[in-house]
Amino acid sequence: MARFSNLIAVAAAVSTQVAAAADVFAHFMVQNSYAYDGAQWKTDMKAAKRIGVDAFALNWVPPFCDGDLSWQADRIKDAFTAAEQMNFKLVHSFDMSWSECDTYWTPSYMQNILSQHAGSPAMYRWNSNILVTTYGGDQVAQYGNAFFQGLKDGMKASSNSITLVPALSKYSCGAQSDPEGSAKRMISGFPSIDGYLNWQAWPLDEHKNMTVEADRAFQSALKKAGKTGPYIMSISPWQYKNLNNGNPWDAWVQYSDTLFPDRFESITKDDACQPDIIELISWNDWPESHYLRDLPSQDMGATDYAELGEFGNYVLGHEHGGWRIIAKYYISWWKTGKAPKITKDRVVYWYRVHPKGAACSGGTSTAIRNHMYPEDAVFAWALVKKEATVSMSAGSNTHKFHADSKGPSMGRVSFPSDLSGGVTPEVAIIRNGKTKHWSKGSQPITDACEWENYNPVVGVCRGQAKLTAW
Ligand SMILES: *[C@@H]1O[C@H](CO)[C@@H](O)[C@H](O)[C@H]1NC(C)=O
């Protein structure tokens, strides 16, 4: 049985009143919450809770840039009030990779903000300490181990001790080729840390399926060093970003075709890799194409309005909400230690809207790095309550596969060579020779594309019309 080690951890937590493991965070970009009010925060928290997310890791950037970004602290204040009412948790995730405006976090500002929320029941704690995460802290000269140690000492002196769990990009990237060596270097280079958030949820610039080797290496290095903080494993559905600025390093896709279910499968099947916490990357990072939230409103008066700028060219119309069905299924499995019973028919499917070889008319100031890695195919992940055949089509290409209530099944159908006029994929669930459910993709696949777009659209073939009704 998977999750054996975690069941022990939970039992121990009950008897000693320490923080229970097996929690799930979702990475939340505070930069995209400018229009949020309290009710909007609650709406997001409710949607996150529905799939088993326990906390948002609030990613924010130093607010000192001409006072421009100081509103972030106000939104975070609202988020705490909302979380208290929703019985939801929040974690500060300081973005320490940001150096725009030449402004940086200072220990005193961080201490001040952490202390402000220390009394809130919504503050996520680990063994009674405030849990603090970061993105980075190892690459920008203003930070580093001494900075972290100073922050910890300052918080301890004010009786608000923290458990520091940073995401250090150098070591996570290095772990792809040398997991154990990189984990060892992280431990010796950053003695101040208590736990680790391994940000690398995608194969880095390689046409390879991801393994959990790096996760295992970091987790065992922490243990060996006697660290008391959690190992946080990141899980993400995709990655594509295109800044369209002419710099070839600023437009990339990472090989993510079946990454999301594959990585979840690895923690439900593998006793040897059981993180203490999972962080979903991300809830609402639109430009990186790994958002799980429904798209933000484009109505400027809406409380979830987000200004997408050029990113809108590959984000708008590309809903990802169906991926939350996958997340919910595996999170429930991970938390309970057993596969959830399947009571409904659903096929989640996703596809890119142009073949990888297409020369699109926009967004092409540079070649997209790794653009040959994704397969030109429609991917499907099926959960059915009773034996069924799932039928997929993309123009003249079709594929059928068997699905049953024992667990998820997967299938794929390649893009046809003739895409003239655009081809819209279709998916059907067939039982006893009858089509029970049918769904057509929201967008066609075409080689007459207007923007380089490696961000997939996600559809759901299901009985219920509304996505939120599962
Ligand atoms: C990744 O694994 C899938 C099976 O889940 C396989 O079809 C695919 O070819 C693999 N990709 C690579 C690059 O090896």
Task: Work out the strand percent.
Answer: 15-25%
Kindly give the count of domains. Answer: 2
Number of helices: 11
Computed over alpha carbons, the radius of gyration is: 22 Å
What is the helix/strand order? HEHEHEHEEHEHHEHEEEHEHHEEEEEEEE
Largest sheet: 9 strands, mixed
Low-confidence stretches: 1-20, 465-470
Total beta strands: 19
What does the average pLDDT come to? 92
Ligand list: 2-acetamido-2-deoxy-beta-D-glucopyranose
Q: Structural class of the secondary elements?
A: alpha/beta
Look at the structure and name the CATH superfamily of the largest domain. Glycosidases
First CA to last CA: what distance?
27 Å
Percent in helix:
25-40%
The shape is globular
The CATH architecture of the largest domain is Alpha-Beta Barrel
Secondary structure: elements and pairs:
Blueprint: H1 4-16, E1 23-29, H2 38-50, E2 55-60, H3 71-86, E3 89-95, H4 107-116, E4 125-126, E5 129-135, H5 145-157, E6 162-165, H6 169-174, H7 179-189, E7 196-198, H8 213-224, E8 231-235, E9 240-242, E10 251-253, H9 259-269, E11 277-280, H10 312-315, H11 323-336, E12 346-351, E13 377-383, E14 388-394, E15 397-403, E16 409-414, E17 426-431, E18 434-440, E19 457-462
Parallel strand pairs: 1-2, 1-11, 2-3, 3-5, 5-6, 7-8, 8-11
Antiparallel strand pairs: 4-5, 9-10, 12-13, 12-19, 13-16, 14-15, 14-17, 17-18
Bound molecules: 2-acetamido-2-deoxy-beta-D-glucopyranose.
Description of the molecule:
There is one protein chain. This protein has helices at 4-16, 38-50, 71-86, 107-116, 145-157, 169-174, 179-189, 213-224, 259-269, 312-315, 323-336, and strands spanning 23-29, 55-60, 89-95, 125-126, 129-135, 162-165, 196-198, 231-235, 240-242, 251-253, 277-280, 346-351, 377-383, 388-394, 397-403, 409-414, 426-431, 434-440, 457-462. The chain is α/β, with parallel strands linked by helices and 470 residues long. The chain has two domains: 4-336, TIM Barrel, CATH 3.20.20.80; 346-469, Immunoglobulin-like (Sandwich), CATH 2.60.40. Strands 1, 2, 3, 4, 5, 6, 7, 8 and 11 form a nine-stranded mixed β-sheet that branches. The protein has a four-stranded antiparallel β-sheet with strand order 16-13-12-19, covered by helices on one side. It has a four-stranded antiparallel β-sheet with strand order 15-14-17-18, with no helix packed on it. Helix 7 (179-189) packs parallel to helix 8 and helix 9 runs parallel beside helix 11 (323-336). The longest helix has 16 residues, at 71-86. The relative contact order is 0.11. Residues 1-20 and 465-470 have low confidence and may be disordered. Bound molecules: 2-acetamido-2-deoxy-beta-D-glucopyranose.
